Amino acid sequence: MTTDTTASEHTLFLVPWHIGNRLDITVHAARVARSMRVFLTEEPELTRRQFENDLGIDCAGKEFHLIPEKEDPKFLKLVLAKMSKEDAVLICSGGIPCFIDPGAWVVKRLRERDIPIRALAGASILSTMLSLSAMDWTGTHNRGTFII
């Protein structure tokens, strides 16, 4: 366990978003989108527009932070600071957080610090388990190795 930060009592939620049609999300994912304030996402402005336009969510007071594709200590520091005060959400547009989309490195670093991570069910239990694995599925060495 790394000791360069205070332990967090807060949770990172891995929320699968849509696959295809922007409205193909679970009721639980929409509920989390409405109730949470801090979002880590691959496309912050697109996510904000989808919240507002497709789901009618008021985004005043919500924060949307761009997840760097490669590990970034400054971004990790930001996430740890946010999570010292409240829960956060890692949301992706591909339906499976950390599988094709960036974020696996964030999950890995938070798990090393024993920060709770909770994955909402996605398209299948396999996608949920892949989200929790913290394996970097986005690296160039992994591209093209899966048939979906």
Can you tell me about this structure?
A 5-stranded parallel β-sheet has the order 3-2-4-1-5, with helices on both faces. The protein is 33% helix and 14% strand. By secondary structure, the chain is of the alpha/beta class.
Q: Report the biggest beta sheet as strand number plus sense, adding barrel if it closes.
A: 5 strands, parallel
Spatial shape: globular
Strand composition percent: 5-15%
In which range does the helix fraction lie? 25-40%
N-to-C order of helices and strands: EHEHEHEHEH
- Uncertain stretches of 5 or more adjacent residues: 1-7, 140-148
SS class: alpha/beta
Q: Determine the N-to-C terminus distance.
A: 35 Å
Strand order of the largest sheet: 3-2-4-1-5
Short description:
The protein is α/β, with parallel strands linked by helices and 148 residues long. It has 5 helices and 5 strands; from the N terminus they run E-H-E-H-E-H-E-H-E-H.
